[in-house]
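Researcher: I'd like a structural prediction for the single chain below. Treat it as a standalone chain; there are no partners to consider.
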Amino acid sequence: MWYEDLTTHYFGGRDDIPRLAIGWLEKERHYHKGETPKAVYEKLCEIREKPWLDYIYCGYHECDFCGKEKGSLNITIPHNGKLYHYPELITHYIEEHFYIPPEEFCEAVLVCPPMDSMDYYNKMVENGGEKLISYFHEMWEKSKKIF
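Model: Treating it as a single chain, here is the predicted structure.
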């Protein structure tokens, strides 16, 4: 699935929450190449270990360039009135395919609080993610009734 960096999309079609696309790459599409700052890459790896997910797909996406890596997580980072939304494969794209994310996203990554913290929750609310959080809680409550 390809989206141009920093364009607004309504991911999944289930909500009206605009999120800025970051790192949704495809083989036939142009993307910025270069060297991503090490601190940004390391923080993205850290976030990947314990992300907050507002929904989970039943399946995975395979790297369109080499097919060596698979991912299924979609992660949101709130910052400066925006919600940046990216696939977990972003670390693979950076490491193996020299993708360089936009500078404003890199800044957001570096100041993102741990996703299991109240600070992250507050940042989500402050930056327009209250509907995402409400939807997550609603789905959680429904799942408890099923299981």
